[in-house]
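Hey team,

Filing this mostly as a record. A colleague (T.K.) asked me to run one chain through the structure pipeline before their review meeting, and I want the input and output archived in the tracker in case anyone asks later how it was produced. No errors, nothing strange. Just documentation.

Input sequence:
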Amino acid sequence: MSLLKTDGTHICVGAPPEPSQIPAFALIVGRKSVAGSMIGGLPETQEMLDFCAANNIVSDVEVIDIKDIATAYERMLKGDVRYRFVIDMATL
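Output structure:
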């Protein structure tokens, strides 16, 4: 909450595994809000993508060939994954 600007809103997309415990003082100072949604809709998704493009916000991914999908799955089960796997569609 301390990262939000005055009148900022923290939006939780999806359900966290445990209930959030946000102290009231964290909301009162700076007139902050909390909102939630099970999923973001198309307009919200497009707004997020536009914001990321405008602010050069990118993700770190590990690109894999489709033939390596079983290995990637095994690595995921072992917790040996640092970035999101992305399948190179040219290898299909």
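Quick notes for T.K.: The longest strand covers residues 9-13. DSSP finds three helices and four strands in the chain.
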